[in-house]
Amino acid sequence: MSESAQESSQKQHIDKELLLDALQTDNIEKFRSEFLELHSYDQATFFKELDEAERLHVYHFLSPEEMANLFENLEIEDDEYSGVLAQMAPDYAADMLSKMYADDAVDVLNELNKDQVVSYLTIMDKDSAQEIKELLHYEEYTAGSIMTTEFIAIAANQTVRSAMHILKSKAPSAETIYYVYVIDEEKRLAGVLTLRDLIVNEDDVMISEIMYDRVVSVSVGEDQEEVARMMRDYDFLALPVVDFQDHLLGIITVDDIIDVMEEEASDDYSKLAGLADLDSIDRNPLSAAKKRLPWLVILLFLGMLTASLIGRFEETLDQVAILAIFIPLIAGMAGNTGTQALAVAVRGIATGDLENESKIKIIIREAGTGVITGLTCGILITLIIYFWYGDLFLGMLVGISIFFTLIVATLAGSLIPLIMHRLKIDPAVASGPFITTINDIISILIYFGIATTFMSYLTK
Questions:
Q1: How far apart are the C-alpha atoms of 437 and 332, rounded to whole Å?
Q2: For a Cys-Cys bond, which of 37, 71, 374, 384 suits 403, CB 3.0-4.6 Å?
Q3: Under a CB-based contact definition with an 8 Å cutoff, are residues 394 and 458 in contact?
Q4: Architecture of the domain whose range is 3-137
Q5: What CATH code is assigned to 285-458?
Q6: Rounded Cα distance, 381 and 397, in Å
Q7: 60-99: pLDDT as tens digits
Q8: Is 55 exposed, middle or buried (0-12, 13-18, 19+ CB in 10 A)?
Q9: How confident is the model over 165-175, as pLDDT tens digits?
Q10: Please, where are the H alpha helices in 281-358?
Q11: Does the reported pTM lie above 0.70?
Q12: Contact 342, 417 (CB under 8 A)
């Protein structure tokens, strides 16, 4: 859908002029009747565009529970949450946070400083505060940090009738009711069944008879990227989270996994681009420069190494100056090939496709790819230079250089991420600019090494 079409569609959902007029004239009834009919995402979209004075009216017009529904869909930068909460009265903000799903409230509180978190938890009701505190203790980017404790659990020795009674009573506060989890006397995960299972079976049927006892679950300390992979592979709407003794601690829902996938994709792309963070567009040039400079400084020193290598072959260039013409060609081909192999390797690691494949097979396959691409490009450039300059040996020298360069570049682009992954380092750190610069160095060494070795044939 085009941007103009999206804007037109959004206007059909949100009557901004009517809502703004209600805010400015302090017409609470008019505002609530229109605003509460909107989807919570549309509510958040409208709220995001308001200035502080207009937002103060919204806080006055909406209850903390209504504001919680909006806040769960509010898409703002992480550092903006503190400012938005500061606009609200502390009691109102704390009450709103307690009405949010616990995992969403934790996401917000993680963006605040410790003093602010303690302040809000102190004001909240004890049950909500305790639930949120338990989630705050889990390490960031793990299953525990993104799970919610608002799920429905029943016992195996119940009937369908009693299970439905529990489901009806707990449904308003549960994040999802499609899956119902079965626990034993010690609260260990024993089975799972769906809402459909409860509906289609007779009231007197025992839960133990219809539950599925081979439950797929994740450890509370599992990396969120691995959890996202499991959700994708199994097509689950929710995934139970357990501790090392299989006690059911919470569940992770598909909406949270979508956020994780977006976050991980953004993080990987940032690293591939040689940036610290691409989650937001920096309006401040100084802030943007701070994020980009670290990698650029590293690449600057690597570039100086490349320049010094070329300087070491100054004598070769003095004797055969035409060699300099092909430096960008060979370095560029090496960088491009390495980046292609890098992209395939990083994607394979991220999706898990390379996990079950033999590392020896990967090396052989990439070497084969390098040989085929190197041979094809080497022959092409040899013929082009021969017809262009009429010098077959010069063409062969450049062609052979490209042949070996593409093989090495392909292997480097695929093996470096695999080695980093083995060392528990994010393979995306082997970013495009990094691999490109490394391959520049390798290609220069190969090119001038061959040229120097066969110098006598070039100077005839």
A1: 10
A2: 374
A3: yes
A4: Alpha Horseshoe (1.25)
A5: 1.10.357.20
A6: 10
A7: 999 999 999 999 989 888 788 999 999 999 999 999 999 9
A8: middle
A9: 999 999 988 88
A10: 285-312, 314-319, 327-351
A11: no
A12: yes
